[in-house]
Amino acid sequence: MRAIPALVSFIGTVLFIVPAFHGIVNLGNIAGTAVCGSLTLMFTFFGRFCGAVSALWRTPGGRAAVCAVSAAAGISVVLAAVISVFMLRAANDPPPGNSTTLIVLGCKVKNGAPSLMLSRRIGAAYEYLEAHPDSCAVVSGGKGSDELISEAQCMRDELVRMGIAPGRIYMEDKSVNTEENLRFSLAIIRREGLPGSVATVTDGFHQLRAGMIAKRLGTETFSVSARTPWWLAPTYWVREWFGAAWCAIGG
After folding, report:
1. What is the DSSP annotation of 211-246?
2. Number of structural domains found in the chain
3. Residues 121, 87 share a domain
4. How much is the pTM?
5. pLDDT tens-digit profile of 220-249?
6. Closest CA relative to residue 205, chosen from 80, 72, 77
7. How far apart are CA 30 and CA 235, in angstroms?
8. 102 DSSP assignment
């Protein structure tokens, strides 16, 4: 029976490693690889693992270490489960009306074109704007040192190419992180007198933290969620556990 959890853990390890071959290395796949890799070794060499734990348990220091690690693991699992529930709820919270201002959060631009994740966000924004002609959008994201154009410009160009009227799109091209995305975009919404019902367009895993930041800025937001590529979802989902926890304590 130990072969099944060992195989599942190994598959998890591979899923967390794969993004690294595409230049994506963050706390999500580092932590995921470490945990899944450790579980793979534990289930593969379960007899040796139990023997090592038994040897530790025979000494006071060893018992303390086993208890501490077990408690930390248990608390981590509970916290991850609770945060995941809130993440799922935030990812599925669409705006109730037809007149909504979208804030489309930026993502990587590669050689002047949207990256895979940015393409998904643009697509989600397009579908909403096409279905709700009274809505408009603020596309938000500055220009990184390795980007030919700003993320906002890239999103605007793509939406216009797809048939959205330029007058429905406002650009915020100075921000460098999610908090600035939201702060600067909300300032544009107030300045231009745009509809105050606001929805963020980003990947589902990111909606909880975006909503927490928006609330800290004095605005309640809804969600229009883009689909994350399946092979990237585990890495970014785990990363958001840390991001949401840090945001919750004021980080």
Report:
1. HHHHHHTT--EEEEEEPPPTTTHHHHHHHHHHHHHH
2. 2
3. no
4. 0.93
5. 999 999 999 999 999 999 999 999 999 999
6. 80
7. 8
8. E
CATH number at residue 132: 3.40.50.620
Residue 197 has phi, psi (to 5 degrees) of -80, 115
The C-alpha atoms of residue 11 and residue 14 are separated, in whole angstroms, by 5
Give the contacts of 139 (CB within 8 A, at least 6 positions apart).
104, 106, 125, 151, 152, 155, 156, 159, 169, 170, 171, 172
Same domain, 39 and 138: no
Residue 36 in any domain: the answer is yes
Strand, coil or helix: 132: coil
Residue 240 lies in a domain: no
Q: Determine the structural domain holding residue 51 and report its residue range.
A: 3-91
DSSP tally for the chain: helices H, then strands E:
9, 7
Token readout for 190 is 């107030």
